[in-house]
Specification:
Blueprint (H helix, E strand, L loop, with lengths): L1 E5 L6 H12 L2 E4 H11 L2 H12 L5 H11 L9 E4 L5 H14 L5 E5 L3 H10 E4 L7 E3 L18 E2 L6 H15 L1 H8 L3 E4 L4 H12 L2
Parallel strand pairs: 1-3, 1-4, 2-3, 4-8
Antiparallel strand pairs: 5-6, 5-7
Helix pairs in contact: 1-9, 2-3, 4-5
The structure holds adenosine-5'-diphosphate and zinc ion (ZN).
The site of zinc ion has 8 residues, from loops.
Length: 215
């Protein structure tokens, strides 16, 4: 399947994407994970992205398109991909449309995961992430804590609160979402690709996607 997952930070895009990869071998492509990996590895991309990310601002469109242009041409994308956290602005959506046309790739749909703001705020402040950039497993101190406090079940690395998950950075990320990313809902509706899920459970979102894809 070839999907775009839309939704505010904390809507569950990453969780849904991980679950979908198990259905048919499609790969999850998270620009946030790629950028955090680059920051930790200290690459040129990481150096350019770091300050934006820490402040909860978007990384410039040109940097993101550079990443995605090469990522979408890697062979593992042949089976399908789940775009998680990309596109995030109208210019990115326009550039993606052009890129996909050039690569002869057709999207199945764009799924808008629409979760109420109070649920989002609660999730983001209680979310914890594995610090190993090859893992980045997601936990929640209330609903899904690691078996041993502060230690990743999957890889044993420390589980931490992301630097952009302070209250200030979170409210800034949500503002940025409303201003820059929410307009993509109208964009993909016009393209005839939009489906909306207002379920708060990831299982329900998965079921809706399966139903729409006839799986
Ligand atoms: P979340 O969806 O929880 O906000 P992500 O892990 O998707 O977090 O992104 C973390 C940060 O990485 C964003 O706040 C932003 O700085 C940067 N980022 C990720 N994807 C993009 C993108 N498509 N365009 C611009 N910046 C991005
Ligand atoms: Zn881990």
């Amino acid at each position: 399947m070839k999907l775009i997952l839309l939704g505010a930070p904390g809507a569950g895009k990453g969780t849904v994407a991980k679950m979908l990869t198990e259905l048919d071998g499609s790969v999850q492509i998270s620009t946030g994970d790629i950028l955090r990996g680059a920051v930790q590895a200290g690459t040129e991309l990481g150096k350019q992205a770091e300050a934006f990310m820490k402040a909860g601002d978007l990384v410039p469109d040109e940097l993101i398109m550079g990443i995605m242009e090469s990522r979408l041409q890697e062979p593992d994308c042949d089976k399908g991909f789940l775009l998680d956290g990309f596109p995030r602005t109208i210019p990115q959506a326009d550039a993606l449309k052009e890129l996909l046309a050039k690569l002869n790739i057709e999207l199945d749909m764009a799924v808008n995961i629409d979760v109420p703001r109070d649920v989002i705020l609660d999730r983001l402040t209680t979310r914890r992430t594995c610090s190993n950039t090859d893992c980045q497993a997601i936990y929640n101190v209330k609903s899904n804590p690691p078996k041993q406090e502060g230690v990743c079940d999957m890889c044993g690395s420390p589980v931490v609160q992301r630097e952009d998950e302070t209250e200030e950075a979170i409210s800034h990320r949500l503002e940025t979402y409303n201003e820059k990313t929410a307009p993509l809902i109208g964009f993909y509706d016009k393209e005839g690709l939009l489906i909306t899920s207002d379920a708060t459970s990831s299982d329900a979102v998965i079921n809706l996607i399966k139903e729409k894809l006839g799986l």
